[in-house]
Automatic annotation (TrEMBL), chain A:
Signal peptide: 1-22
Keyword line: Electron transport, Heme, Iron, Metal-binding, Periplasm, Signal, Transport
Main location: periplasm
Name of the protein in its database record: Cytochrome c
Iron found in the keyword field: yes
Cofactor(s) needed: heme c
Gene3D superfamilies: Flavocytochrome C3, Chain A
Species this chain originates from: Shewanella ulleungensis
Coiled-coil residues: none
UniProtKB/TrEMBL annotation, chain B:
Domain FAD-dependent oxidoreductase 2 FAD-binding: 46-489
Stated name of the protein: Flavocytochrome c
Cofactors (names): FAD
Tagged with keyword Transferase: no
């Protein structure tokens, strides 16, 4: 019985580790949201959040100002770009539980040094 | 009205579909269904699938003619498709700028250029229809706020300068104004909405569509599927399939995944497949065009494509092994792409040719500064430095440039028969700007058969499938073997407008 409890404990610990790993969260979001999955998952846990979810806390106009570039390169602003203006949803370049490259990288060699994929 | 049971022919069509996309895997292909007993989640007047030039133009035109409830569905998270990333080059005969510049042009002349490029199998009726209404489409863009460079361009295969280009040298210079106009006039737009199939009535007519919500391209996830009734009609404006490697290889085995592609990632052809299931006729699927202006030094369409398109008329393309020209730099795309692909080193490996332009001429286009800045183009003060950088035989190169400059002065290219009109007074001299060229998969001439009312033809009855319309690159046969540059925007927009007019019975 004692051995069984030890084994059970190890299994549960393993499951917990897997569980934590499968929903890894950015440090900067962990600080603000903690473990409240529903803060972002407005479509339920099994689906991607809606594109409006990020906008509960982030403002695209503010972001466009922060990432503005010189007049010569103004349309390389990832948050207000030539092809789509301010209309690219956050999830297209930013992923919470995985990493993503900027959409622009499909065709361009722009530098996005502060991009957090 | 067709009384044929369209869906009963699934096995026949599936055989064709399997052959065309044999290795196709997830996501599962859409499946159309009978609409009997369907519970509608939503009822609208017009459903438009796809948000590029064709879809946006259709929405605006339908609303202008009285439609009250128009909906655009886009499977990607952002709107515009390939239209938002293309070169923004719009050909039309009889335009205000042509009149101002004294350029003689006509519907006949434009159609003849296209028939020649189509190598005898283009659809003259459709080409004529598009050319006849191209100025109307151009006007729609101007009315919506699009702006253009103050000069015409003459692209490969065109006999005269007839091409406008947006002032941002990109299709977004048109899609953004059109998209904003859609919003302004009350068109409903839905992103992340994936078309999952048609809903077909008792008479074989299209009465609605199935749309999956919260779709994330390339991911598997269980968004809900809605049954949406289209009371007036469905317009398929889903674009081409250049990004579908399996389908393009089924047509041309050399178009492997290693061959670069200029398209947006969503150009995979599912909408076209579903129309085939309904009975649409496949036309010219094997004619897949590569862009001869593309660069091996950047992804997709990038900056070099527009740079090259602008500069080809007054530049020389040089085979780096020989130091010689190897083609007419403004021939049509197929001639040039094939000629470029033939540029090889001694071992037969690809040796991308170079395009040499005088800086005094290339600097007129905004992309010149960008190609240099992002290291996909180069500037040289001497021909010696240029030849050394690209390992080109110097003596042969000098001789070729001198020979070509003779043609510039005389107005006659005895080497390749290039039309020297736009090269007048533009001799090749230092300083030079240079880019490397290597073709990328760009445009699918093939698609579903349509008529000049944008109606989709049924393969068994040779009549139109009621309730179903198609416009833009998803249609086939119009351009024949090779589409001329800048002829896609007028086609997409005119046929989008035509679909709207057919539905609204204008």
């Amino acid at each position: 019985m004692k051995n069984f409890n030890i084994i059970l404990g190890l299994v549960l610990l393993g499951l917990t580790s897997l569980s934590v790993q499968s929903a890894e969260i950015r440090d900067y979001h962990k600080e603000v949201i903690g473990k409240d999955c529903k803060a972002c998952h407005d479509n339920g846990i099994k689906q991607f959040p809606s594109d409006q979810s990020c906008l509960q806390c982030h403002d695209v106009d503010e972001l466009a100002k922060k990432t503005a570039r010189s007049e010569e390169d103004k349309w390389q602003n990832p948050h207000n770009n030539l092809h789509y203006g301010k209309d690219v949803p956050c999830q297209e370049c930013h992923s919470e539980h995985k990493t993503k490259e900027p959409l622009c990288s499909n065709c361009h060699t722009f530098k996005f040094d502060k991009h957090k994929g | 009205m067709s009384n044929i049971d369209l869906l009963g022919r699934r096995k026949f069509i599936a055989g064709l579909g399997i052959a065309a996309g044999a290795a196709m895997v997830a996501p599962a292909m859409a499946v159309s269904e009978k609409a009997d007993g369907v519970k509608w989640d939503k009822e609208v007047e017009i459903v438009i699938i796809g948000s590029g030039f064709a879809g946006l133009a259709a929405a605006i035109e339908a609303t202008k003619h009285g439609a009250k409830d128009v909906h655009i569905f886009e499977k990607m998270s952002y709107f515009g498709g390939n239209s938002a990333i293309n070169g923004g080059l719009f050909a039309a005969p009889g335009t205000p700028m042509q009149k101002k510049e004294g350029v003689e042009d006509s519907v006949d002349r434009m159609v003849n250029d296209q028939l020649l490029s189509g190598r005898g199998i283009a659809d003259e009726a459709l080409l004529r229809h598009v050319a006849s209404h191209a100025v109307e489409a151009l006007q729609m863009t101007l009315d919506a706020g699009a702006e253009y460079h103050p000069y015409l361009q003459q692209l490969g295969g065109h006999s005269v300068a007839r091409t406008y280009q947006t002032s941002v040298s990109c299709g977004a210079g048109i899609t953004q104004p059109l998209y904003k106009e859609c919003k302004r006039i009350g068109v409903n737009t839905h992103n992340r909405s994936k078309f999952e199939g048609f809903l077909v009535g008792n008479k074989g007519e299209v009465v609605g569509v199935k749309m999956r919500q919260n779709y994330h391209f390339g991911e598997e996830q269980p968004g809900k599927v809605l049954n949406i009734r289209a009371k007036l009609g469905v317009i398929m404006a889903t674009g081409g399939f250049a990004q579908n490697v399996n389908l393009r290889m089924a047509q041309d085995p050399t178009l492997t995944a290693e061959v670069g592609c200029t398209n947006a990632p969503g150009a995979t052809g599912e909408g076209m497949f579903e129309m085939f299931r309904l009975g649409a006729i496949p036309v010219h699927l094997a004619h897949i065009q590569s862009g001869p202006w593309a660069s091996p030094d950047e992804g997709g369409f990038g900056y070099v494509s527009n740079y090259s398109i602008f500069n080809f008329p007054h530049s020389v393309a040089i085979n780096r092994l020989t130091g010689k020209r190897f083609m007419n730099e403004i021939a049509d795309r197929k001639i040039r792409a094939d000629a470029e692909l033939a540029c090889r080193d001694e071992q037969g490996n690809p040796l991308p040719p170079i395009l040499i332009t005088s800086f005094k001429d290339s600097k007129a286009h905004p992309n010149t500064e960008k190609v240099i800045k992002y290291n996909v183009g180069w500037k040289f003060d001497t021909v010696e430095a240029l030849a050394e950088h690209f390992n080109v035989p110097l003596k042969a190169l000098k001789a070729q440039i001198a020979e070509y400059n003779g043609y510039v002065n005389s107005g006659v290219d005895k080497q390749f028969g290039k039309d020297m009109t736009l090269a007048k007074n533009k001799i090749i001299e230092a300083p030079f700007t240079v880019v490397r060229l290597w073709p990328k998969v760009h445009y699918c001439q093939g698609g579903v058969k349509v008529n000049t009312k944008a109606e989709v033809t049924d393969s068994l009855t040779d009549k139109s499938i009621p309730g179903l319309y198609a416009a833009g690159e998803v249609c086939g046969g119009i351009h024949g073997v090779s589409r001329l540059g800048s002829c896609s925007i007028p086609e997409c927009m005119v046929m989008g407008m035509t679909a709207a007019r057919s539905i609204m019975k204008v």
